[in-house]
Structure formats: structure tokens, C-alpha cells
Amino acid sequence: MIQLGEQLPEVQFQRLTDNGVVTQTTAELFKGEKVVLFAVPGAFTPTCSAAHLPGVVELQQKFYDKGVDRIICLSVNDAYVMDAWGKAHNAGDILMLADGAGKFSQAIGLAADTGDFGGLRSRRYAMLVDDGVVKQLQVDEPKQFEVSKAEVMLALL
Fold first, then answer.
1. pLDDT of residue 88
2. CB under 8 Å to 83, separation ≥6 — which residues?
3. Separation of CA 48 from chain center
4. Among residues 35, 37, 40, 48, which one is catalytic?
5. What pLDDT does residue 45 have?
6. Active-site residue, 48 included
7. Is the pLDDT of residue 113 over 90?
8. Which of 56, 72, 92, 121 is most deeply packed, by most CB within 10 A?
9. Averaged over 140-146, what is the pLDDT?
10. What is the extent of the structural domain holding 133?
11. Domain count, the chain
12. What is d(CA 80, CA 97) in angstroms, rounded to the nearest whole number?
């Protein structure tokens, strides 16, 4: 698993924009930025939709007030699903990012095989990344939602 002080691996992500699906790299998303990245096992899944994303949406301005440049929500889903999920929850400025093949999740050691539920997914976590370097990392145990909550991350800033 990635550790505090380590650089994020260089991978490609997708997101849906008004001009269609675009691919962006780790460097493009994190270089020179203070970013709160939170990852969920799946868009439109119960805890992710009822608590995790809504908690970040509710507190997003407080993150920006504390000097965060960008908030990213990541899941091993496609860009269309992530965009629809963000719109369904009025995610505002939160960047809804697809790790479609799970390459990022695997590269940082936070992928999970959920078997018949959905196959390769991300574990639930939140991290603070400054210029591509991990400064805080909060990883929930499987089927838990405690340490990656928006309130916990906000308190760590």
C-alpha cells in the first residue's frame, strides 16, 4: 500500500466533459495542487451514495477554505457512470474521476477483488495529496466507513 511521503504513480484516468470523455494523467491532475482524493468501492452503491459522496459534497467549501485546490472522487467505474453519479448528487466542483481498469487502485495497493459483487474495485479511502505526494492517508477496513469520512479528512487539514 502507498505510504505517506510517497509520490503517486503515473497512470491515466478518464472523466466526462462537455466535449466527451477525456484522458488525464496523474501529473495533470496533481502537479502543483493540494488535492483531497477520496475513493469508493462503487458509484451508486449504498454507503457511497448515502453517506460518502454526500458528506464530501456538503463540506466541499470548507475544504476549499482550508487551502485545498481540488477534490477528486475516484471509483473503478467508467467516466459515464461517474459523471451521472456526480450529477445525481449535485457534486458541484468535485471532479468525478474514473479509474476504469483499476490501474491506479492496483498501483497504490488499494484495489480489492469483490468477486461476484463487482470484481476489481477500489477500497474505501481518502488522502491528501500535495504536488503529487501523499501527505495523509485514511483507509477504511472492508465494509466499514469510519476513517475516510469528509469530517475526518477535514479535521486532518
1. 95
2. 15, 16, 96
3. 11
4. 48
5. 85
6. yes
7. no
8. 56
9. 92
10. 12-156
11. 1
12. 10
